[in-house]
Amino acid sequence: MTRSRMQTTQAPRGMTLLETMVAAALATFVLAAAAALLMAGGRVVHNTEHVGDSHDHARLAGEALLSAVRQAGAGMSEGLWVVSGGVPQRINPVFGGDGAGSGLLAATTTGNVPGTDGTDDLWLVVPDREYLGRDCAPGAAMTVVKPGTGTLQVNCVGTPSTAPGANAMLVASNMKSAALLTQATVTSNPPTATVSYLESGVPGFSNAPHKGGFQRGDLVYAARLLHFFIAKNPTTNRKALMRAEGIPATDAAGRPFMDMGDPLVVQDFVEDFQVAFGVDAATTGDPAQYVFQNGLSPEYTPGLRSVRISVVATGRTPRRDTRNQAVLAEDLPIAVENHTPPATATPDGYFRSLFQRRAELPNLASARL
User: Fold this and answer.
1) Which DSSP state fits 183?
2) Residue 307, Cβ neighbours under 10 Å: how many?
3) Is there a contact between 81 and 180 (Cβ–Cβ < 8 Å)?
4) CA atoms of 125 and 112, how far apart (whole Å)
5) What pTM did the predictor assign?
6) CA 98 to CA 156: how far, in whole Å?
7) Which tops the pLDDT comparison, 337 or 130?
8) Residues 59-110 pLDDT 10s
9) Which whole-number Å values give the CA distances from 195 to 206, 305, 342, 354, in the listed order?
10) Sign of the dihedral defined by the CA atoms of residues 330, 60, 169, 294, in that order
C-alpha cells in the first residue's frame, strides 16, 4: 500500500519559461509605474518648495524694508539739514533713485556706482530705536540747554557709558526740522555734557537756520543712514537685497550720502526692487489723492507721505518639468512699476514672487507729532 502511494505521488513542477517572462514583464511595468510616480511626486515637492521659497524671500525682504521705512524721519517732518560740499542744504530723510533715471535720480549700488539693471535704491535716515530709553549714552536722547551753532551743551545726568562707533551720526531736532551731525565726542560733566560734531564749523548750520542756530529744548539723538539696493551676493553669485550704512558725502550721482564699508545681505535671491514715492502736493490729507512718482531727489519735497515698495524674489534652484529639466517656457523676469525687463530675456526656470505694499510715513506727517 505504501509503495503504491509513493509511485502515484508527483514531484513539484517549476515555472515554465513563458510564465517567468510574463511575471518579469508585469514586475517591470509595476516598478516603472512606481518609479514614475515617485519621480512625479519628487518633482511636485521640489516645485512646491521652490514656489514657497520665492514667496518667503519676497515677503521677508519686503517686511524688512517696510520696518525701516516706518521708523524713518522721526523729528524731520519739515526736512533734514545736512552739509554737502561744505554748504548746508535741506533734504528729505527718505529718498531714492530710479533704475531708469540719471543724475540725482540714478540708482546707486555698492561702491556708490550708478546701477544699470533697472532696479531702484532707497535711502533712509532712521533714529536709534532706543533713543528715548537711555540716559546720556553716546548718541542717546539729550536736550539742548544752551542755544547756538557751535558745540552743543546738553543735559546729562549720567556719564556716557561707551565710546561712539565709527562715523557715529546724531540728529538734533525741534521735532519738525532737524540737522544731521557727524559726532566727534560727547564729554560729560554732569548735569550737562558737550557734544562736538564735525559740521560745527559751517556758518549758520542748524536744524532751523532762520532761527540762528540750535534752540533750547531741541532733542539730540543717535541716527543711522541706511541704503537699500540690489547687488550680487559674492557667496551665491545671485542677486540679493543689500543694506549699507552711509555717511554724509557726495556720491557718484551727486547725492549727499554715500556707502561706508561693505554692505550686508538683507535677503538672498531678490532680483528686483522698486520704490514709488507718494506726495500730497495739494495738502489734502487724503491718501487717495497722493501722486506717486518713480524716484525722489534728495532735495526737500513738501508733502512726502507714502512709499510703495515692490520686491521680486525667486527660489534657490530652478523648477523642473516632466522630463526633470528646468521649466523654461513661463519662468521669466516680470515687469514691476516702471521697470520692464527686455523682450529678449531668456527663460531660466525660476518662479517669480512679487511682494508689494504701500506704507505711510507717520514721522513725516507733522500733525501726528
Assistant:
1) E
2) 25
3) yes
4) 17
5) 0.86
6) 43
7) 337
8) 999 999 999 999 999 999 999 999 988 889 999 999 999 999 999 999 998 8
9) 14, 32, 52, 45
10) positive
